[in-house]
Amino acid sequence: MKIAKSFTFEAAHRLKDHNGKCRNIHGHSYRVVIEIKAKGAWTANGSWGGMLIDFGELKTWWSEHMEPHFDHKLLLQFNDPLVDVLESSAAMEGPLGPQNIDDLPEDNVQTFPFPPTAENFADYFRDEVLAWLHSNPDRTGLNASVTVYETPTSCATA
Hints:
Largest sheet: 6 strands, mixed
Shape: elongated
CATH class: Alpha Beta
Helix content: 25-40%
CATH architecture: 2-Layer Sandwich
Number of domains: 1
Radius of gyration: 19 Å
Strand order of the largest sheet: 6-3-1-2-7-8
Structural class: alpha/beta
Number of helices: 3
Strand content: 35-45%
Distance between the termini: 18 Å
Number of strands: 8
């Protein structure tokens, strides 16, 4: 038995070492599908009261622990030179005149120890879901997989 719940977030990223257009900052309307599965035989009268997990609990976990770090953020690898540029306090000349990079809220940029790809985010989200599930002894019999869609037709699953 398995259940699935989808979440969406808007974010920009770039792949600093990519040789194509993904090297440039660009955005996606990401869709994340979290599947929760029973590891063993499913029994409708088990300790979950006929449910693998309450969809509302999964929604609350996502809304409180994942969404704030991803939605409407710039997602960068921690060693991307752009991180240093964004952290500097130098004034920038833009098409609308002088702009100070300090006007960007600090939490608009999230950095990761890996390139911000759909594959790496699928792996990251799966590990986070499993840690959350298995922090509850009643849920140790559950497993999870996560699919991250960067576009409606391109995704990665972990």
